[in-house]
């Protein structure tokens, strides 16, 4: 089944270029294009895309505000921020809003296609250089650390696999559990860590040293 993509950017020429990459190189189905953040919210509600490529700086609503509203209205959609800005504040705010990926617009088309696949499969993806900055920002902004003992062994097992990029189905298979059990454990993890999504939970686990990106 083709991955359904919505492109939100205020530059028509850029949208056309990304559409060609998605359709010709990625074999995705581009279901719509939005010229601003408000259009992105409305089209996401109407079209229910699998993945949304979201610019940061747009009129009416910026990409962060649009992402927040989309995550409320369309929690099944996954947002990748695709922008020219490396500013730490933008990265951090986008992740807090619920974005699953953050890439720069000078990314190679192969990396963009790969990112869409990975995020669609439930993984989180951030430019490696920017990931370090996000971790630093979490370190600076964290008012208090949550002890590892706050999580049950089962929750910690799930969190470690989330940090490695596995989606719920893969985690369920790895741990020989029902996918509903994984969903319930994730909800408990979010509450205990005071985070809103799996990307934030993964970053927290990495920052605390509870998990690594290695498979070992």
Poorly predicted runs of 5 or more residues: none
Strand count:
6
Helix content: 40-55%
Strand order of the largest sheet: 2-1-3-4-5-6
What is the name of the CATH class of the largest domain?
Alpha Beta
Calculate the mean pLDDT score and round it.
86
Secondary-structure element order, as H and E? EHEHEHEHEHEHHHHH
Describe the sheet with the most strands: 6 strands, parallel
CATH superfamily of the largest domain: Response regulator
Give the overall shape, derived from the CA principal axes. Answer: globular
Number of helices: 10
Give the radius of gyration. 17 Å
Structure description:
With 216 residues, the protein is of the alpha/beta class. The chain has 2 domains: 4-134, Rossmann fold (3-Layer(aba) Sandwich), CATH 3.40.50; 142-208, Arc Repressor Mutant, subunit A. The protein contains 10 helices and 6 strands, in the order E-H-E-H-E-H-E-H-E-H-E-H-H-H-H-H. Helix 4 (88-97) links the parallel strand 4 and strand 5 (101-104). The protein is globular and about 50 Å long. The model has no long low-confidence stretch (mean pLDDT 86).
């Amino acid at each position: 089944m083709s991955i359904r993509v919505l492109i939100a950017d205020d530059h028509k020429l850029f949208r056309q270029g990304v559409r060609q990459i998605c359709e010709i190189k990625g074999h995705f189905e581009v279901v719509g294009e939005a010229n601003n953040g408000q259009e992105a919210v409305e089209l996401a509600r109407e079209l229910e895309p699998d993945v949304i490529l979201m610019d940061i700086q747009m009129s009416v609503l910026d990409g962060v505000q649009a992402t927040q509203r989309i995550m409320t209205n369309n929690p099944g959609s996954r947002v990748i921020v695709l922008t020219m800005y490396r500013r730490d504040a933008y990265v951090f705010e986008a992740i807090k809003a619920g974005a699953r990926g953050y890439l720069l617009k000078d990314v190679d088309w192969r990396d963009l296609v790969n990112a869409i696949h990975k995020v669609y499969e439930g993984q989180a993806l951030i430019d490696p250089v920017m990931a370090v900055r996000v971790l630093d920002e979490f370190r600076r902004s964290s008012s208090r650390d949550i002890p590892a003992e706050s999580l049950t062994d089962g929750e910690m097992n799930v969190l470690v696999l989330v940090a490695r990029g596995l989606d719920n189905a893969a985690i369920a298979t790895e741990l020989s559990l029902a996918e509903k059990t994984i969903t319930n454990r994730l909800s408990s993890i979010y509450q205990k860590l005071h985070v809103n999504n799996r990307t934030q939970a993964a970053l927290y686990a990495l920052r605390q040293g509870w998990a690594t990106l290695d498979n070992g």
